[in-house]
TrEMBL record:
It comes from the Eukaryota. InterPro entries: Kinase-like_dom_sf, Prot_kinase_dom, Protein_kinase_ATP_BS, Ser/Thr_kinase_AS. It comes from Thlaspi arvense (Field penny-cress). It is an enzyme of class 2 (transferase). ATP binds at residue 84. Pfam families: Pkinase (PF00069). Its EC number is 2.7.12.2. It catalyses: L-tyrosyl-[protein] + ATP = O-phospho-L-tyrosyl-[protein] + ADP + H(+); L-seryl-[protein] + ATP = O-phospho-L-seryl-[protein] + ADP + H(+); L-threonyl-[protein] + ATP = O-phospho-L-threonyl-[protein] + ADP + H(+). This is mitogen-activated protein kinase kinase. Belongs to the protein kinase superfamily. STE Ser/Thr protein kinase family. MAP kinase kinase subfamily.
Length: 313
């Protein structure tokens, strides 16, 4: 955790905010900037961020594979935002993510207020999630009690239900993409691996291997089909079990979770071990999420009615 704190608070701010030079991407209005939406849920809906120069950088919140996330403050309104700077070498993928973000308006999903694009960077102005990611919370706490996991699962399921209604597969549900705000509410973030399914088959394969479902890791074995939404349910199952155990649950403690070990754990191992100490409701909930055959796996709608979730509301 000390490493995480160090990363979050002490990292030097070496990356300067790109100059406000804008290019047009498919389906997105261009220069000089655009706001995706303004809503009453916005901390500052009457005065959205108009240019990147409106924001001053405060600290680094974290780094992902593609870029860095900063805590920023609007110079005039003093509203705090998270600013994610991503190197943008794939504008097609970017257009999908931006299109998805434009459509989303849910209290279970991290709000994106504006997107700025230049030739090197994509800049997302997002709702600040003060308590960081579930990944960091897990490093600090090493597991959560079931009531906490139940309310977390409920919020993620509500977010997934919203996305499914929009025909959006998230594709990368994992602890570092679940962010926590000041009130302790969990929201889904990061649509870099997402896709919009038009009702046909879904062959999406980007995402993070450790949280990928068997049918995404080995589609030939488990069969192609309308698997995207079921894949998000599997990932949720891995996340909630990780929340209970305080460690990645599909490999043995101490095992090096390299690619081969992960593939084996996801696709070959007979059944995922669920500890005897957990409640029958939790065991049933996790077992249903981690059903290897996506055709038999529980749906988001069914999980929202599961006793593990509704008994604790
Ligand atoms: N809106 C936000 N508010 C507060 N902190 C954030 C926000 N978005 C991201 N972060 C922090 O920045 C970190 C990096 O986020 P980012 O989305 O770039 O990568 P990641 O999801 O951790 O990893 P990757 O995308 O490479 O798989 C997160 O783990 C989180 O700690």
């Amino acid at each position: 955790m000390s490493l995480v704190r160090e990363r979050r608070h002490q990292e030097p701010l070496t990356l300067s905010i790109p100059p406000p030079l804008y290019i047009r991407i498919a389906g997105v209005p261009s220069p000089p900037s655009f706001s995706l939406s303004s809503s009453s849920a916005s901390p500052d809906s009457s005065s959205p961020v108009e240019t990147l120069n409106d924001l001053e950088k405060l600290t680094v919140l974290g780094r992902g594979t593609g870029g860095t996330v900063y805590k920023t403050r609007h110079r005039r309104t003093k509203t705090l935002y998270a600013l994610k700077l991503l190197r943008s070498n794939d504008l097609n993928a970017t257009a999908v993510e931006t299109d998805i973000l434009k459509r989303i308006e849910s209290s279970f999903i991290v709000k994106c207020y504006a997107v700025f694009v230049n030739s090197s960077y994509l800049c997302y102005v997002m709702e600040l999630m003060e308590k960081g990611s579930l990944h960091e919370a897990l490093l600090a706490r090493q597991g959560f009690p079931e009531p906490v996991i139940s309310s977390l699962a409920y919020r993620v399921l509500q977010g997934l239900r919203y996305l499914q209604e929009m025909r959006i597969v998230h594709g990368d549900i994992k602890p570092s993409n679940l962010l926590i705000n000041e009130k302790g509410e969990v929201k889904i973030a990061d649509f870099g691996a997402s896709r919009i399914v038009a009702g046909g088959d879904d062959y999406g394969s980007s995402g993070t291997c450790a949280y990928m479902s068997p049918e995404r890791v080995d589609p030939e074995k488990w069969g192609f089909g309308k698997v995207g939404f079921a894949g998000d349910v599997w990932s949720l199952g891995v996340v909630v079990l990780e929340c209970y155990l305080g460690r990645y649950p599909l490999t043995k403690p101490g095992d090096k979770p390299d690619w081969a070990a992960l593939i084996c754990a996801i696709c070959c191992n007979e059944e995922v071990e669920i500890p005897a100490s957990c409640s029958p409701e939790f065991r049933d909930f996790v077992g249903k999420c981690l059903e290897k055959d996506w055709r038999k796996r529980v749906t988001v709608e069914e999980l929202l009615l599961h006793s593990f979730v509704i008994n604790r509301l």
